[in-house]
Amino acid sequence: MKIMLDAGHGYNTPGKRSPDGMREYEFNRAVANYARQLLANYKNVTVSFSHSDQRDVSLKARTDKANSLNVDIFVSIHANAFGGGWNNVGGIETFVYPTRPPVAYQLAQKIQRNLVISTGLDNRDVKTADFHVLRETKMDAVLVECGFMTNRNEIKLLRSETYRRTIAEGIVKALAEQFNLQRKANAAPAPAPAPPPAKSPAAAKKDGLYKVQAGAFENEENAKELAERLRKAGFDVYIDQE
């Protein structure tokens, strides 16, 4: 299977940066690099990049390259923005072309679900848009917006290597699910949540109860899915509705 990863924009693209100066491409390319490393663990998968660290690549050049290589799926990675200054708009959203091609739409749903669960950010849903990379690609294509550069909380995440790896893992997991990718026999094991630490006698004697919230969701099914994943990892979990 041939997959093209598209890190949106470039180092020198006008605009496309946070109010405090982080270029969107810095995030996009990091996620693409992590995703390529993860996809190397699967059989019969070839990964190509549409972007370049040496120059800004036009949208036409990106889709022309995808079409000439006859790739099977095109995944465009972005960070979002709203307005020119800081605000509270945030969350994850994934786009497909307005005709909602079935395979692209199914993949977009899987990416959206994985990223909302793994990041805990607001679910802005799967949407349609007449973006060039969705319209001019001959193969199925999706575009994912992984958080808002204009949100003070989310820009901290977008700068974090842990968050970038988390986004890459969610995208790759969705690709593996959608296309039934098979892991290589010698592949590194998929990352899993660490088991809860054992309680020390000193900690057990302290007064009070300390709790850690793993996520907050408007959709009950998203909360149940995260709870089930945590239970399988060995955690005691409960869902509290507010």
UniProtKB/TrEMBL annotation:
Q: Which UniProt keywords apply?
A: Hydrolase
Say if the entry is tagged with keyword Transferase: no
Q: Known CDD domains for this protein?
A: MurNAc-LAA
Which stretches of sequence are listed as region Disordered?
Answer: 186-206
Query: Which GO biological process entries does UniProt record here?
Result: peptidoglycan catabolic process
Which GO terms of the cellular component aspect does the record hold?
outer membrane-bounded periplasmic space
Tell me which residues make up the SPOR domain: 204-242
Enumerate the Pfam families for this protein. Amidase_3 (PF01520), SPOR (PF05036)
Where are the compositionally biased (Pro residues) regions?
190-199
Molecular function (Gene Ontology), one example? peptidoglycan binding
This chain belongs to the protein called N-acetylmuramoyl-L-alanine amidase
Organism of derivation = Mesobacillus boroniphilus JCM 21738
Q: Lineage of this protein's species?
A: Bacteria, Bacillati, Bacillota, Bacilli, Bacillales
